[in-house]
Amino acid sequence: MTSDSTGNSTGGKRSGIDWDVAADTFDDEPDHGLRDPAVREAWAARLRGWLPRGPSDVLDLGCGTGSLSLLASEARHRVTGVDLSPRMVALARAKLAGRDAAFLAGDAAAPPVGEQRFDAVLVRHVLWTLPEPGRVLRHWRGLLRPGGRLVLVEGVWGTVSPVGIPADRLTALLAPLAEDVRVERLSDDPRLWGREVGDERYAVIAVP
């Protein structure tokens, strides 16, 4: 997996990438840095549909350099970001300096947030890298307040040796954990990626 086929980092060397080394060029990809106004607005529009309407507490796991955290903050949400890469965390803190946001170095599978609860847990391109995804999803569900939601952006990338998690597998894992599970296909919207894509990309919004 190369950095241009995932949206956020899980940090460290998980997935064979040293994310501390990759951090300084991570935002060069259109869907990472969101520097193109059209790409940025495409993600902002999706987040408006996925996250709660009013100001809420959002946990961004595998936050990378904080691009989605910034969009959530601009939508008046209070953001806590977690990434395993200290360099990614440092860049996210700089990107959201002065905003109602906090960033912690830690494992997305077991984020260091104590007993804090959130209205939304946002995770982009992270779950597929984690062992025991069913167990991880149960833990993430436990981080939600009543009425909260999981917002999971995932996919399957590559054709020769594809990696990722298919939507049907993820929805099956969520079936015993959430009463409402909605899948939103993302592959057919090139604005999100800065180009046309032909692989499977999607978001799942799950409400326990």
Mean pLDDT figure:
91
Provide a count of the helices. 7
What is the N-to-C order of secondary-structure elements (H for helix, E for strand)? Answer: HHHEHEHEEHEEHEE
| Unreliable residue stretches | 1-14
Spatial separation of the terminal alpha carbons: 31 Å
* Fraction of helical residues: 25-40%
How does the overall form come out from the CA principal axes?
Answer: globular
Overall structural class, as computed from helix and strand content, comes to alpha/beta
Q: What integer value in Å does the Rg equal?
A: 15 Å
Biggest sheet statistics? 8 strands, mixed
Structure summary, number of beta strands: 8
Strand percentage: 25-35%
Describe the structure in your own words.
This protein is an alpha/beta fold and 208 residues long. It has helices at residues 19-26, 30-33, 37-50, 67-74, 86-95, 133-141, 167-174, and strands spanning 57-61, 78-83, 101-105, 118-124, 144-157, 163-164, 180-185, 200-207. Strands 1, 2, 3, 4, 5, 6, 7 and 8 form an eight-stranded mixed beta sheet that branches. α1 (19-26) packs parallel to α5. The chain is globular.
What's the structural blueprint in terms of helices and strands?
Elements: H1 19-26, H2 30-33, H3 37-50, E1 57-61, H4 67-74, E2 78-83, H5 86-95, E3 101-105, E4 118-124, H6 133-141, E5 144-157, E6 163-164, H7 167-174, E7 180-185, E8 200-207
Parallel strand pairs: 1-2, 1-4, 2-3, 4-5
Antiparallel strand pairs: 5-6, 5-8, 7-8
Helix pairs in contact: 1-5
Would you kindly provide a brief summary of this structure?
By secondary structure, the chain is α/β, with parallel strands linked by helices. The chain is 29% helix and 25% strand.
